[in-house]
């Protein structure tokens, strides 16, 4: 087992690193139920029309933010615009409710990897800084952190949808470091994606730990992380870090 040097701060990715999740946005039930929600609130869609409108608006938002190296959209505004397309002036709170319904219907399962909570808890007990840097949607992720019982362990949380950029963009990392006054030499990035977590850490000039999980993308090259673990096992990660 590779031993990791002690750091003051640990920056975690979420999905595929601490949380195992599977979503399916193509299933019929999702679009049937979401269509009923929109119709109930005055936006008359067919199932097919609603799905196409959603996909088109996401693409439009991505073009809007194309000046960013790695743009990220805020889906609550997509769900709000879907009401406006049908002449319904929906409050943002209603759009967020639509987004949460979308997430709930599309989620096949969501759960912590074994030992995830224990890992975070022991880092906190050791007086380490624990941060979350996630390519995700805030309207999905914040409720899921509460649901899974791990939000309390983080000293700081940055989510890409709120920032308008995402990993591996160094700008996303820089915002975390600036907001929480972190020093590069004191930080370790922990994630399961070579293309976002590890590349971003390398561009930022910080050490990294790559964990290969069931949600890791295929990678045929050499993993350019400071440390790596070829299988998802957070018990081993805990032994490496603590």
TrEMBL record:
InterPro entries: HAD-like_hydrolase, HAD-like_sf, HAD-SF_hydro_IA, HAD_sf. GO terms for biological process: small molecule metabolic process. Keywords: Hydrolase, Magnesium, Metal-binding. One of its GO terms (molecular function) is phosphatase activity. Its cofactor is Mg(2+). PANTHER family: GLYCERALDEHYDE 3-PHOSPHATE PHOSPHATASE (PTHR46470:SF2), N-ACYLNEURAMINATE-9-PHOSPHATASE (PTHR46470). This is HAD family hydrolase.
């Amino acid at each position: 087992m590779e031993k990791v040097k002690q750091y003051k701060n640990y920056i975690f990715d979420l999905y595929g690193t601490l949380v195992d999740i599977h979503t399916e946005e193509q299933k019929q039930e999702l679009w049937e139920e979401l269509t009923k929600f929109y119709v109930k609130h005055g936006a008359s869609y067919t199932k097919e029309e609603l799905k196409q409108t959603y996909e088109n608006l996401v693409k439009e938002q991505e073009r809007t933010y194309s000046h960013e190296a790695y743009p990220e959209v805020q889906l609550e505004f997509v769900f709000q615009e879907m009401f406006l397309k049908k002449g319904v002036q929906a409050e943002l709170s209603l759009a967020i409710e639509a987004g949460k319904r979308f997430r709930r219907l599309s989620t096949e399962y969501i759960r912590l990897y074994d030992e995830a909570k224990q890992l975070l808890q022991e880092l906190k007990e050791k007086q380490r800084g624990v941060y979350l840097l996630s390519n995700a949607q805030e309207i999905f992720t914040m409720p899921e952190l509460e649901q899974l019982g791990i939000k309390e362990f983080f000293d700081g949380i940055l989510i890409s949808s709120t920032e308008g950029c995402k990993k591996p963009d160094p700008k996303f990392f820089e915002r975390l470091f600036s907001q929480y006054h972190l020093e590069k030499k004191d930080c370790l990035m922990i994630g399961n994606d070579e293309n976002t977590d590890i590349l971003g850490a390398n561009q930022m000039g910080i050490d990294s730990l790559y964990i290969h999980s069931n949600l890791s993308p295929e990678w045929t090259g050499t993993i350019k992380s400071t440390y790596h673990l070829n299988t998802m096992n957070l018990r081993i990660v805990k032994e490496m870090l603590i």
